[in-house]
Amino acid sequence: MMTDFLQHRIFGIVSDIAEREGVKAFVIGGYVRDCFLQRPSKDIDIVVQGSGVAMAEKVAAHLKVAVNIFKTFGTAMLRCDDMDVEFVGARRESYSADSRKPLVEDGTLEDDQRRRDFTINALAFSLQKADYGTLVDPFNGVSDLQHGLIRTPLNPDITYSDDPLRMIRAIRFSTQLGFTIVPESLEAIRRNRDRLHRPVVSLERITDELMKIMKAPAPAKGFYLLEETELLELIIPQLLKLKGVDVIGGRGHKDNFGHTLEVLDNVAAKSDNVWLRWAALLHDIAKPATKHYDPATGWSFHGHEFLGAKMVPEIFQRLRLPLHEKMRYVQKLVRLHLRPIVLSQEEVTDSAVRRLLFDAGDDIDDLMLLCEADITSKNEQTVRRHLRNFEIVREKLVEVEAKDAIRNFQPPVTGEMIMQRYQIPPCRKVGIIKDAIKDAILDGVIHNNYEEAYKLMEEKAAELGLAGS
Questions:
Q1: CA of 453: how far to CAs of 100, 370, 426, 448, in Å?
Q2: pLDDT number for residue 3
Q3: pTM of the model
Q4: Which CATH architecture group holds 148-235?
Q5: What are phi and psi of 41, to 5 degrees?
Q6: Extended beta strands in 158-288, E state
């Protein structure tokens, strides 16, 4: 008996109504899986041998809550306390080769379990009075949970062909749970990879799974699996170009694909910020396009940070990721990710720190975390040296910020003040004066105050032949 997993009041309510209506109801899917894994869950799926919508309406009437009905999918959803509860009628499904829309027929519980993606998601608890809490596990899902395996209930070619998104879901669950995809399933993903194209699977659904991979404790595993199953080139082909090492004259560069994924996991170990993780994934995205070999100095990737920043909007747009401040945040970190590294290798001047603070603004701490994660040398002495240098940079950032208040600063003299003082419209001369004031503050020539900025404005205006009114 599994009644310990069924303490929430919704289960007793469904059980009572099912008995009264003469239908059978079961808890199925992720909630049952997470009970065994002892993971918190806020979603409950109820499958009914009968009408799931009718059951939802009766439960909602009992709870006096609203119910949302999705006629296209034959499902209904309501909220009970802290849980989202979805109802569906038990069904069997069949698919055509060129569509994600199945032919749906009424079915039994086992028909419904058979159509599930993985054995660990096909587990069900009975809500019948006679065997309340009994586990229904026709595909040995509990055994797969115990052994940490991702396996499909049916032949994986059928499961993945029916819904190609399940290929990425297999990788997502493997990454989230630390499970292993069984070999026959991995091979089936490779065989069916060409099914992962529009209109069969929308980019939005693919990206939703990618985001769940990115939020996993160690997301690199997911990208290794995407590469291994040949799905990565269909989703983010730019990443695949990072793979491999070129050698000329016995001199090679590091494998930038492996390095990138190591940086991603380093960031994930320190931060749950998914957009910082995206910055880690894309920080070296332009290295293949900027790769150059010089016999005297070896391999270089000059300007990859600037070209990489330009590539970010294209990648975000293709994946239907947000193009507003989240994209600009990732773009900024990609563009700036070498700046603290250069600082750590040279004398840390106040001027350089002011400029870094000005350019990074409130994202300076995330930038520093990304840069520290970027240290992936196998030489422990090298790693320790870099981390010590970064600590010096951090101390200098705190010192300069406390002294000069540079982070997100606005120059004390604005463009409007310049135009009013010299009775001129917006023009190039206004920009020259503003830039001169900003650069003087960042370089420490003047302090960040109105009096010194105003004086410099007068000097630059005189040089430009401007006279005050």
A1: 64, 34, 19, 7
A2: 59
A3: 0.85
A4: Orthogonal Bundle (1.10)
A5: -140, 140
A6: 180-181, 247-248, 251-252
